Amino acid sequence: MKSAPFEVFCPNSLDALIDLLDRYQDDARILAGGQTLIPMLAMRVASPSILIDINQVINFPKISAVNQRLEVGALIRHAELEEFLKSYPDHLLSKMVPWVAHAAIRNRGTVCGSICHADPSSEWVLALLVLDGYINLMSKKKKRRVKAKDFFLGPLQTCKLTEEVVVSVDFHMVMDGVRYGFSEYGYRHGDFAIVSAAVVKAGNTWTIGFGGVSDIPLVYELGDVDEMECKEFIEKLSHEVDVREDPSATAAYRRFLMRSQALQALSQII
Amino acid sequence: MSFPDNRHFERYEDAALLKGAGSYIDDCPIKPGTLYAAILRSPSPHASIKSINIDKAVSLPGVRAVLTSQDVAAWSKPLMGAVKSEMKQFVLAVDRVRYVGEPMAVVVAESRALAEDGVELIDFDLEPLAAITDVKEAISSDAILLHVGTSSNCVSDRVFSYGEPDRIFENSAHLFELDISYPRNSCTPIETTGVIAEWIENENAYEVTSNFMGPFSLHTVMAAALGVSGVKLRHKVPKDSGGSFGVKQSALPYVVLTCLASRKAGAPVKFIEDRLEHLVAATSATARTTHIRAAVDQNGKILALDYDQLEDCGAYLRAPEPATLYRMHGCLTGAYDIPHLKVRNRVILLNKTPTGLVRGFGGPQVYFALERLVFQIARSLGKSYLEIAGLNYVKKYQFPFKAAAGAVLDSGDYDKAVSILLDSPEYQDMLDRQIQARKKGKWYGIGYASIVEPSVSNMGYISTVLSHEQRQKSGHKNGAIASATVSVDPTGSVLVNIASAPAGQGHQTVIKQIVSELFGLSGLDVVVNVDFDTNKDAWSVAAGNYSSRFAGAVAGTVHIAATRLKERISSYAATLLETSEDSLVFQNGYIINKDSDAKILFARACGAFHWAPDLVAAAIGSDRSLALRETAFWSASTLSAPDSQDHINTSAAYGFVLDACGIEIDPITCKAVIDRYVTVHDAGKILNPLLADGQIYGAFSQAVGAALFEEFQYSSDGNFLSGTFADYRVPTAAEVPIPSIKHMESPSPFTPLGAKGIGEGNSMSTPVCIANAIADAINYEGIHLPATPPKIHGWLVQAGHLKEEPTRQKSVRTHQKNMPLRASGEIKFGVEPGKIFQVLLDPQRIKKIIPGCESISQKKQSGDIVYESVAVVRIGVMKARFHATIVLSDINIPHGLTLSGYGKGPLGLAEGAGAVDFTTIGGVTHLSYHYQARVSGKLSAVGSRLLEGAIRLVLDQLFKALAREAGDIKTASLWKRLVDWILKRAKPE
Q1: Tens-digit pLDDT profile for residues B770-826
Q2: Is B234 helix (H, G, I), strand (E, B) or coil?
Q3: What 3 state SS string does B278-344 have?
Q4: CA angle B87–B88–B92, rounded 5-degree value
Q5: Nearest partner of B338 among B372, B387, B381, B388, judged by Cα
Q6: Per-residue pLDDT, B976
Q7: Would strands A134-138 and A69-73 be described as parallel, antiparallel, or unpaired?
Q8: 3-class SS at B760?
Q9: Per residue of chain A (270 residues), what is the pLDDT tens digit?
Q10: What are the chain A neighbours of B724 within 8 Å (beta carbons)?
Q11: How many CA atoms lie within 13 A of B263 on its CB side?
């Protein structure tokens, strides 16, 4: 497992980075934490001729919670977010962070990198969809701010163009009057989720999201229902929605888990 | 003999290993000019090789040579097997590939990275054949034959009968029977196989260093394949190996392959197997399908057993297979006194990785059948497992006990093990916890297993696969020669050489302990050399590390050699100290006359043999040997060849393990949680309790993996799906509880130290113990491994504990075995079908819809339209390049067509076919498609979790582009909204 040959560039500013992207387009891939990319390079399922190492870029945003939104910049490691979230232990993101891979991976992997990878089981992808998330992209020509549900197109697929870089992502971050619940199940400690469930209750409005069930997390919004109706909705949904079947789990089992994980998440709220 | 109470001798090896100072194959110094190998491997489970073109690979700068099957056929012979058949196994595929990962060519280059670049440049053309993935399918009348010239994929079908099983079955009070299947798995050592090989042209010989761990009977197989005598294949094994668990027996073909690569390249070649290669193609434990029957009397005494075993050995029978079937043959009756036995063993070849040694080696497969059956017998008769097992156990007074098929169980006291279990607070606690849990309505089960753990294999056991007549012809095989050399150097320090190829078990620790105790020295004065060199060390066919032979055979042989040496030193020391040999005591570096307290330094007494041999000869007699070096060869006396009635004592020693486990099924996730686990072991004389417990923890952990997590999965069309540790789930410390271990000792009368092996017990007992506990927890009998949460969920539904999930059957298509991936959907177009067909029939326009299309050309082919194209499929960061053939057939304008494609590239092969139908409703064209596909190779191995999603994505890209190109701008822009309901899937059966 040795990668195919590639050239490495280490820009130290955002401008230098987007110049490189503009020049090399589809021949280049961005290296941030490398926790996904490096194994793929080693296995040669990805073999870009150019690697742009962005770890020296100094002007990405960092982490900030302003105006009820949490912005997480491109180079923020999961572990840094974990540290920051210690001030918000009841927020959804706080509940999700221990489930992101292993501690060792969290030290290097980045939140934005994970989001660009768009794995159907990714906790941050689910979080963006459930928390009214936005992805902030930049290219030489323009900046754009894309809603999460427009960003994720399929498994491992986003609408990010080859000349763009994700500069930061931001999530809704409100504690007053909002309750959060999260639960996921993977077979081993640190495994990707077979099914994950996130619940947000703001007044009588519920947002329920499921990861791992389909190509992209499924998100539903229920207005003006009570807890019982919410549970009924989940039950009905688990019977009706199209659910993946793959070597890891049967569709029937995923349906079962949808209910059990959603109920676990709900129990944190009610 | 007795051991001092400080038997908790600490492990000597660990300091170096933990500080990164180990000496593994990859650390071995290599000669300047050594090159590196990478292997082109088959992406397909079964195909004819139409062509292989290495020109581009050979011309890549840095690549020095490419080894092909022509070279292999010219310079080597097929690997010998235990069974005579027309199956031929060269180390590179010749004419056909028969399993995913099978080596097809070897690129030798200045670095491994360059070699892998070279591998990607090899062009090859494979014509797929139907792949067989199931033993019953393999022996069906219309099954494709894997090997031309054989009459069946079953290459050995042997029936055995001991006693009068048929008569007993006819007359029994009860008949119990059970079908079980045992999955493919492995022990995945952290260090993979490594080989450094050199062709010594002047001598027509090969020199190899590798972490092969035996059995060294396979040395003859390697030498024969290379066409050289055994002494012309010099094989060295470095001091440290990062785990083997039997798995490094699979280094065998790589030793031969790397030797040949060196010959081709004219330079030494180094090959280190990477993890992806290892999981796909190294080896696997056999999967076994067994129909087992027991004739039982009204009290529960088992009178006869009948095993009908179908063994999945993979695509080739790689020596020493079918040893997995025969290693346990003598003790198929397990811990029970069952005089009548009937066995049918069928060895089946099919399109999966060739099987081999994996810890437990036949035990897990046998006991899964036997102990599931005994557990069920107890439940059916309304008795406890311990009662039924106890009724059937071999009794203490019966040892040594000759089992029906020939195993001579050396010693034991199984009833005592039961008392130890019953008396243990942990077990009582388990019973209590079950009562409490069941009161709360929880699914809590208790399972048991009793097993006899064989160790020190009889090398003749594999000849049981041959008939008596065949054995007469091929020659008598038996025994298990262990060898060891002990010597004392001129400074009085002791050196021990053993051919045990350790992989972390602590052999040096145990040998130091034995020898230092014998000579009264500190462990620091004893050096144990485990580097192994076939041209310098004493060894024989049984050398190596497998079937837990160290404690029983190797340690014992060291003791024999050291004792002989001690006798020689004693006879000289006795004359110096003016006493008889019986009055001497070796202690604290001195030899002491215990009657007079006169003493002499051990080093001094030994020194005389080197420095003043005349003096020694005068003292002890000139007819005595003066060598301070003793090599002992030992073989257990009870290891005879199979007799004319096929009785075979398959091992020299038999330990005993009795397990009980309490499992709760978690209602939230359906996972099996091991709540309590007690394991009682009798491994004869324990040499070092710390190491013994270490072996138990290790076997237990791997067995928990086999029971609940691990399986090499294949799709129905033969594609390998478990290529990384994300999919082949080895449990972590978080998933493995700590078992309570209880020891007892029934020393073996047949091994020099009374010790038996202890390395494989829980590999054999734990999986079935866990299965029994789950069966008890949910009251369901069809348990098979690994018992993963989705499976348990299914069993809970079948047992009526959970309601069934609705199935959403939308498709009318049946599930095609050869094309297991499916996608279906419907899209609305704002243009009429004619416009869409115009795009499809125009190569310049279809170029715009094929993802990443780099080139396209059209071929005419009897009414169909065929395009050849190079396409690049992008999914996330992955970019997969395919040479694609796209066929439009059954063209029926404007109603529909069949669209199929076949693509091959470095990431594998992809093939899909589907019907595309158009209907017009109210001015809107509805395009519906039903696709079936298969993906082989690396994409399948590492991405099985996401394959169907990826296919949906590719079809999405295709139809989106089609819409745009057909002029349907509206549809293209509505695309994002349509994605969700467009791509629905039909459910598999």
Answers
A1: 999 999 999 999 999 999 999 999 999 999 999 988 766 443 334 567 778 888 877
A2: strand
A3: HHHHHCCCCEEEEEEEEEECCCCCEEEEEEEEEEECCCCCCCCCCHHHHCCHHHCCCCECCCEEEEE
A4: 135
A5: B388
A6: 43
A7: unpaired
A8: coil
A9: 999 999 999 999 999 999 999 999 989 999 999 999 999 999 999 999 999 999 999 999 999 999 999 999 999 999 999 999 999 999 999 999 999 999 999 999 999 999 999 999 999 999 999 999 999 999 999 999 999 999 998 889 999 999 999 999 999 999 999 999 999 999 999 999 999 999 999 988 999 999 999 989 999 999 999 999 999 999 999 999 989 888 999 999 999 999 999 999 999 997
A10: 43
A11: 23
Q: Please enumerate in sequence order all residues whose Cβ is within 8 A of that of B780, keeping only pairs 6 or more positions apart, or say none.
A: B774, B795, B796, B798, B799
Structure tokens at B510: 């145990």
Chain A within 8 Å of B878 (Cβ-Cβ)? yes
Structure tokens that stand for B503 in this block: 């992989």
Q: What pLDDT was estimated at residue B816?
A: 61
Q: Which of B291, B381, B298, B366 is nearest to B336 (CA)?
A: B366
CB contact under 8 A, B116 and A4: yes
Q: How many residues does chain A have?
A: 270
Taking residues B419-447, what's their average pLDDT? Answer: 98
- Looking at B502-621, list the stretches that DSSP marks H as alpha helix, in order from N- to C-terminal side: 507-519, 555-576, 602-611, 613-620
User: Which residue in this structure is represented by tokens 């192994």?
Assistant: B532
Per-residue DSSP letter, A214:
S
Selecting from A153, A189, A246 the residue whose C-beta is nearest the C-beta of B945 gives A246
Q: What is the DSSP string of B684-698?
A: BS-S-HHHHHHHHHH
Instruction: Say if B717 is an interface residue toward chain A (CB within 8 Å).
Output: no
Instruction: Report chain A residues whose CB lies below 8 A from the CB of B976.
Output: 150, 153
Distances (CA, A) of B976 to A155, B905, B972: 14, 30, 8
CB B207 within 8 A of CB B234: yes
Mean pLDDT for the stretch of residues B736-761: 95
The rounded distance, in Å, linking the Cα atoms of B491 and B469 is: 56
∠ Cα A64 A67 A73 (to 5°): 25
Residue type, B903: G
- Residue B975 has what pLDDT? 47
Task: Give the mean pLDDT of B85-102.
Answer: 96
Interface test with A, best of B670, B721, B877 (most A CBs within 10 A): B877
Chain A residue whose CA is closest to B877: A46
Per-residue pLDDT of B933-989, as tens digits, reads 888 888 888 888 888 888 888 887 788 788 888 877 555 444 444 444 444 333 333
Residue whose token pair is 């005389």: B608
What DSSP element (H or E) covers A15?
Answer: helix A14-24
What CA–CA distances, in Å, run from A212 to A230, A244, A253, B316, B988?
Answer: 21, 8, 12, 38, 19
What's the whole-model pTM score? 0.93
pLDDT at B426 over 50: yes
**Diameter of chain A by CA atoms?**
58
**Rounded to an integer, what distance in angstroms lies between the CA atom of residue B485 and that of residue B561?**
6
CB contact under 8 A, B790 and A154: no
Distance CA B52, CA B63 (A): 17
